Amino acid sequence: MGNLLQNLTPYSILSPYPYAAGDHQYYNAKIFKDNGVAWVIREKDLNSDEVLDIIDSVDVKEISKKIEELELIKPNGAKRIARLLEDLTK
Questions:
Q1: Looking at residue 37, what DSSP letter applies?
Q2: Residue 80: is its pLDDT beyond 70?
Q3: Do the beta carbons of residue 14 and residue 32 sit within 8 Å?
Q4: Strand partners, 40
Q5: Helices (DSSP H) in 2-88: which residue ranges?
Q6: Could you give the CA distance from residue 3 to residue 61 in angstroms, rounded to a whole number?
Q7: Residue 14, SS3?
Q8: What are the structural domain ranges in the chain?
Q9: Residue 10 has pLDDT above 70, yes or no
């Protein structure tokens, strides 16, 4: 999930690793899909036509607005976590 949050952009088309334990990558990616800020394509269904259709349909302003509203990505998240961990060890 951390990698997903760190690398997600308004243009994210996610293709989860199909052999991940419990298919957790798919379910993590699905959170973003269900909130309308990313697309998920299973590896077996991945093809250039579908990817190009998604790219053609992107409304960057709308997706960016949704990401901000949902607070799915926080600026400086890694630094915040590091500070929290440092505070816990004091």
A1: S
A2: yes
A3: yes
A4: 14
A5: 2-7, 24-34, 48-57, 60-70, 77-88
A6: 23
A7: strand
A8: 2-88
A9: no
The token pair that represents 7 in the structure block: 């690398």
Closest CA to 31 of 14, 17, 45, 46: 14
54-58: long-range contacts, CB 8 A cutoff, minimum separation 24? 54/13, 55/11, 55/13, 58/10, 58/11
Residue 66 in tokens:
């949704």
3-state secondary structure of 16: coil
Q: Are the C-beta atoms of residues 33 and 40 closer than 8 Å to each other?
A: yes
Terminal-residue alpha carbon distance, the chain: 27
50 Cβ contact list (under 8 Å, min separation 6): 41
pTM of the model: 0.59
What's the half-sphere exposure (Cβ side, CA atoms, 13 Å) at 89? 6
